[in-house]
Amino acid sequence: MKTPDVIVKGKDNGEGMVIHYETTKGTDVFGLAIPNIYADADWDLGPTWCYLILGKKTTLIDTGRPGNFEVFGSLLKSIGKGFSNINRIVVTHSHEDHDGNVAEIVSATQAELWAHTIYCQMISYHPHIKDGALHPELPGSCRLCRMPEIIYKNCLPYHKKRSSLKVDFPVRDDQRLPDEDLGFVFTPGHSPDSICIVLEDEVIFTGDTLLPDITSHPSLVYAFEVNRRILPKGYRRRNDVYGLMNYIKSLSKVAYLNSQPLKATFPAHRLFYNGRFNLLDSSERAKEIIQFHIDRCRDILRIIDNKPAGVADIVVQHFPPSRLAGMGKQLAENEIRAHIEIMEAYGDIRWASENRDIVQRTGTSNYLNAIEVYLHCSSF
Ligand SMILES: [Zn+2]
Predict the structure, then answer these.
(1) Are residues 224 and 244 in the same domain?
(2) What is the total count of domains within the chain?
(3) Based on the domain organization, do 219 and 320 belong to the same domain?
(4) Model confidence over 95-146: pLDDT tens digits?
(5) 47 with 269: CB under 8 angstroms?
(6) Closest to 51 (Cα-Cα) out of 205, 185, 170, 182
(7) 198 Cα to the center of ligand 1, angstroms
(8) pLDDT in tens, 306-330
(9) What is the distance in A from the centroid of ligand 1 to the CA of 360?
(10) What is the span of the domain harbouring residue 201?
(11) Vertex 173 angle, CA 167 and 174, to 5°
């Protein structure tokens, strides 16, 4: 991938930076790095990269963390654009660092809003459907939020504004717009409504599905039962959208897209970090992340060894202490549980306690074949 031009030099982690990339066909793409600062900031994910495509329509991909509407405006200004120039907004998924400011930007631009059809359900409220939700009062995207109140209460005003939006074009899984040389790839797993966007068979915008440096947080299969009844009808019968295995399938889909090899990959975080660009080959990176999850399963089995082991102990033994500070601990436990879910499904692990906090090996490693299929070929 060729190195993008730097229009505005931002901070060392990329925040405030503006970059430019021109496709072979001459389409201009700009990247704007919107601040992404958590209330409990003991770990830096890096800013959210939002992208502007100056194609037939001017399309904005993602709108950054809430509270950055003015920053957004000033970064647009640096490339001679304003909100009124934007015709379409595409949201990669319903997480607050990707669709924060969306209500404000929709109203300032009068642009069409595009997102996966599941997104429509994620931004709306379903308080009458409890089904084991920790927070049935929060919108679909947050019914299993495990953050402390001090953190999630910051999101409440943004949720409210977001819920009033109408999605003008609900994207249905994999879809192509030949007129505009634009394609959508449905990549659920990190969230049930994740999409990647492919431009001119040359550039892929990956949202959180594919990131450099870090692997995105997988959702849990368990979320399917909690959210089954809020999903659009076609997605309720069996779980194709939650959990690590669905995420791995999505990675495989990206690795083996018909349009591979793609020339440029624009992720939503860490395009630029620690003072340098992270330029990815999306196919190679997708395979690397699948391999990473295979290795993590292997390490979990190694830690469990031949006696029952507590999930909390596995977390402490697998992750370095720096990853377990603050809300890192909860995230780390979810990661381990996502892997346990796969190995339990393939019979490699069983629960040794009723409240599902102690696991035991069965002696098999069936997970390996199950995941490796996706590493070596596309089954789509
Ligand atoms: Zn996300």
Answers:
(1) yes
(2) 2
(3) no
(4) 999 999 999 999 999 999 999 999 999 999 999 999 999 999 999 999 999 8
(5) yes
(6) 205
(7) 18
(8) 999 999 999 999 999 988 987 788 8
(9) 31
(10) 5-280
(11) 120
